[in-house]
């Protein structure tokens, strides 16, 4: 009897010790994200926890600008960063050049092994000239044109009329607006300029700088002149709603009124339209390629590990799960419309299914074609600065306060001074 009690006691002690050891071995990591990427992460955790029960994940979500501002401060001061940080495409070059993020190309991460598995333009976005890789891509935004089928039908305009060329887009737009009083072709003319600026780049060129850091903005640059000219033509023809940037209050109102004939954006826009932006107009929208067979990306998200993290191994396990697991990439796509950067996820049966909001159009095939035709664009740490200067120059052209040559000359000078 005593032996039985002793054996039972030892067994209980062993089990308790093992349980305590297991609990002690659990690692907690923090992840800094922004909406709607936080929804993707929340949806991913059950699957991740099942695979990695000893890694606990805590999500710290801030508004888009607040998140990136906080990360900028944390990397600059060397404290306050999360173990994993989400980074939007618009900031990745800045953080790459500034330091503070782990080089994922080196051991033990060896992220370069995954490069062939991703859409070809994603890896270069997170790499520096000296070969460092500061973040892994998770989603992309292949550009697409969305259009109201009912407005086109009433105007006797075909979808091909809209995207044959930019001239055709404007001509068709005039017919659509005339046949549908109170409508606009597009929320803002500036959106078209952004597409043109991102297409037709030569190898080794970024949006605003070449590899030698020479400023490409110029009154003699065909790319910049065309972008400004087409946008100005749309504004002068009164085809745009002057709604400004995406997700501004005016832009949102224009969508919710239901008087927009088209929009150019990333494939992710459908998720917003069906959930809140234009949910009353389901079945009236369709998708096709951008005019003139333009292929461009509307953003994308990445995950990086700050050098200050104390849990780099666990952080890397989470990043690999979020970015290289096809099932997880598909789940993210279903959750928020975050188009997978991982090519294997783009071959899922889901891509051959109709999109209910788009009248069951197989639009994912359109977006996949766009994704695989987008060319890499070199990034520069001063891109955000140049982007704002060019945006201000375009605004001056659209409101008539400057001519195109004058605006581009002034922008060229301002960027050159900032680049010194």
Q: What are the key terms here?
A:
420 residues, alpha+beta, D-Maltodextrin-Binding Protein, domain 2, eight-stranded mixed β-sheet, 17 helices, 47% helix, 12% strand
Strand fraction: 5-15%
Uncertain segments of ≥5 residues (pLDDT<50)?
A: 1-23
Distance between the termini: 86 Å
Structural class category: alpha+beta
Tell me what the structure shows:
This protein folds into 2 domains: 28-140 and 299-352, Periplasmic binding protein-like II (D-Maltodextrin-Binding Protein, domain 2, 3-Layer(aba) Sandwich), CATH 3.40.190; 143-296 and 356-419, Periplasmic binding protein-like II (D-Maltodextrin-Binding Protein, domain 2, 3-Layer(aba) Sandwich). Helix content is 47%, strand content 12%. The chain contains 17 helices and 8 strands.
Structure summarized in a few sentences:
The chain has 420 residues and is of the alpha+beta class. The chain is built from 17 helices and 8 strands. Helix 6 (149-155) packs across helix 8.
Write the layout of secondary structure elements.
Elements: H1 2-25, E1 27-33, H2 37-51, E2 55-61, H3 64-77, E3 84-88, H4 89-98, H5 122-125, E4 136-148, H6 149-155, H7 159-163, H8 166-179, H9 190-197, H10 222-236, H11 249-257, E5 262-266, H12 269-277, E6 285-288, E7 297-304, H13 312-324, H14 326-336, E8 339-340, H15 363-371, H16 383-398, H17 404-419
Parallel strand pairs: 1-2, 1-3
Antiparallel strand pairs: 3-7, 4-5, 4-6, 4-7, 4-8
Helix pairs in contact: 2-14, 6-8, 9-10, 16-17
